[in-house]
Amino acid sequence: MFGYDVGISGGVTSMDGFLQKFFPEVYDRKHSPNNTDGNYCKYDNQKLQAFTSSLYIAGLLATYVASWTSRRYGRRPTMQIAAATFIIGTTLCSAAQNIIMLILGRVLLGIGVGFANQAVPLFLSEMAPYQIRGALNIMFQLAVTIGILIANLVNFGTEKIHPWGWRLALGLAGVPAGLLTIGSMFVLETPNSLIERGHLEQGKKVLQKIRGTNEVEAEYEDMIAASEVAKAVKHPFRNIIQRRNRPQLIIAIVLQISQQLTGINAIMFYAPVLFQALGFGSSASLYSAVITGVVNVLSTLVAVAIVDRVGRRKLLLESGGQMLLAQVVIAFILGYQLKDTGSLPSASAIVVVIAICVFVSGFAWSWGPLGWLIPSETFPLETRSAGQSITVSTNLLFTFLIAQLFLSMLCHMKFYIFVFFSACIVCMTLFTIFFIPETKGIPIEEMQGLWASHWYWKRFIPTDPVLEQELKMRGSSLERRHDDVETGKEAT
């Protein structure tokens, strides 16, 4: 649902029928033989960018309401609200007769995205056994990349249906929203959420069902203890800014900012527009976007396969170098070979597409999924909903800024915009080296010990005997749980 909307907007904004109806000045500039604005400025229009970005500012605001519904009523109802709102927004967009109707539909889509991005990562982290939590949580990002690929394929097909192909492209967003509506009727509420809301026996039964065994006492006791701490917190947003919660909060915020400043959404949102700016024809630009979409999906599958074996830090560091190399190559070729008029030589255009695929693959098996995974598994239960809201809202704020500013930045900075993204990648890789610890294989309830042993973050964690004893007890609980798992494997 989220991925489809990320991918569909770039293709729709490059379609002539859509531009003629809502943005005739952009259409005239695109097709004018006397266009003086050059390759980089064909699509520089604030209203056109608002069509893409309005979804994300709405999602930013909606996630705080979603935090309340997720905590008060559960993860499952929050997903259902997301699906219903998204269906209404899809209907408005596909039937839009004017710019107001179009933007209103996008705002409703944004509300759906805000609710879904709040509930789904929490749902996945809380349902998953800790041994495979990374792989299962990355299914969220995998679904996003599949949605982007499907949107690119739809764009490629509907671009040839003139002048109403864009309506079909926008309307098909109702399919994943419908799937979420149906699916959310069958899934169980998470045991963490049930226990947090006082349904202890029901929470235990769900835990036994999803673990496939009645021997869940250690994990259940940890959940009860975490729930008691959470109930004592009356104001989670006020609590989350306290000193002892600083490590999780800072890392979550920096991850989301870094995720956007890699330049990934500039490419994902505007891939067809970007390729056209580089001199590709309309169909060729959509075809190139499909190629990057395929790379995105396959690389996310790589992340699913290796994240719980390789770990989070190694993937973040490897991809930092990979994405930096790709951005430097793109900036170099565009700087030397793409002028304000004309197009790239064929060989150079192929190299640019390959470099973009290298960049996308690096992002897809690291910063893309891990930007969601790490925050969802590091916040304690008492601040988890609030932490997820801050994570989502930070992501959507910077997604909004990139969506609203990228075409203008491309126009004014030209190829230097890729130099800017390269500098951001260097900064975020350095942050990873010094400040992001490895969270692989650590149960959510045991994360507090991670910060207490980190060279920098330990200064934010109170060092009192009670806490140290609690960390030791939790360590023993983890060992018991590991032994239970191994015993279960032998019995099986």
Automatic annotation (TrEMBL):
Its main location: membrane. The keyword rRNA-binding does not apply. One of its GO terms (cellular component) is membrane. It is a multi-pass membrane protein. The keyword Isomerase does not apply. Residues 1-440 form the Major facilitator superfamily (MFS) profile domain. Pfam families: Sugar_tr. The chain crosses the membrane at residues 48-69, 81-101, 107-124, 136-154, 166-188, 249-273, 285-307, 350-374, 386-409, 415-436. Keywords: Membrane, Sugar transport, Symport, Transmembrane, Transmembrane helix, Transport. GO terms for molecular function: symporter activity. It is found in: Membrane. PANTHER family: IP12678P, SOLUTE CARRIER FAMILY 2, FACILITATED GLUCOSE TRANSPORTER. NCBIfam families: SP. Belongs to the major facilitator superfamily. Sugar transporter (TC 2.A.1.1) family. This is Major facilitator superfamily (MFS) profile domain-containing protein. It comes from Riccia fluitans.
